Amino acid sequence: MYHSITPGKAKPDWPWALSIRDFRDQLNLLADNGWTSISPASLQQKASLPKKAVLITFDDGYADNFLAFEELAKRKMLASWFVVTNFIGQPAGWSDKGAPQLDLLSAQQLKEMADAGMTMGSHTHTHCRLTQVDLNQVKMELELSRQCLSNTLSRDITDFAYPYGLYTDQTVSLVKECGYKTAFTTRTGFGLVNNNVLKVRRVAIMANDSLG
User: Which end of the chain has the smaller Cβ count within 10 Å, N or C?
Assistant: First the structure.
């Protein structure tokens, strides 16, 4: 699980960011050790997964992620982006303590990435905390973001990531009801727990993580 990718080699001040140099080194490490990048759809046919499969994900959809996309494309590797649709091509409209106010990827960039084989999924419409709004608002966030991405990319959107990793059993039920087939948490772990593709665990990659 990645968020922001900054140019150059200096370690970013924001712990949820990563320099492009470190990201490039991580991709090379995966490739050199025989890992195969997969899409979320592959989780639904886990019996046919490569023995060493890795699912690379990005939350929020920051414009600086285009650098990461270019590095992935050079290596013919796949990744997935979970985009906050209300701010496509604009500054992020939500605020978190200590986080920089970054622009999001444009519609044109998202199309280019999707056409190159990258997966585009929803991260809600406004990046709200789904456990702190009523269920009607949850459903609106899920449906509107899915429709926005579908209209932008001319393809069905079936993948989702919970903002801040927050969800309840009712949230998960609504995610399924709204047509999503996989959903990603921020809980630490290697992939599927109890074979639940609507509560996929991930490993967060942070600014100060070593290559080891």
Answer: C
Do residues 93 and 126 touch, judged by C-beta distance below 8 A? yes
How far is residue 36 CA from its own chain's centroid? 18
DSSP assignment of 106-141? PHHHHHHHHHTT-EEEE--SS---GGGS-HHHHHHH
The pLDDT of residue 137: 97
- Overall pTM > 0.90: yes
- Packing angle of the helix pair 65-74, 20-32 (nearest 10 deg): 30
Nearest residue to 109 (alpha-carbon basis) of 126, 123, 90: 90
User: Which position has the token pair 């459903």?
Assistant: 139
Distance CA 75, CA 171 (A): 36
Instruction: For tokens 């990319």, name the residue.
Output: 153
